[in-house]
Amino acid sequence: MHPTIRRTLCGAVATACAAAALLTAGPGAAVAAGPPPAPATARVKVEIPGPERGTDAGSGYTRVPLSGQAKGAARLSEAERAADGDVTKMIDNGSTADRLDVVVIGDGYTAAELDRFHADARQKWAEVAAVEPYTTYQNLFNVWTVDAVSNDSGVTGDPDRGAVRDTALGSYFWCEDIERLLCVDQPKVDAYVAKAPAADLVIVLANSAKYGGAGYNEPSATLGYEGISTASAGNAKSGQVAIHETGHSLGKLADEYFYPGVPDYEKYTGPEPAESNSSTLTADRMARERTKWYRWLGEESPDGGVVGAYEGGGYYVTGLYRPTDNSIMRVLGKPFSLPGTEAMIAGFARHATFVTPLTPTDRTLRPWHTAKASVPRLADAYGRQPEVKWYLDGRELKRFRGRTEVRVAELWLLDLRAHKLTVTAEDRTSAVRDPLVARTLRTSATWSVRL
Ligand SMILES: [Zn+2]
Question: In the record, which residues are listed under signal peptide (predicted)?
Answer without folding.
Answer: 1-32
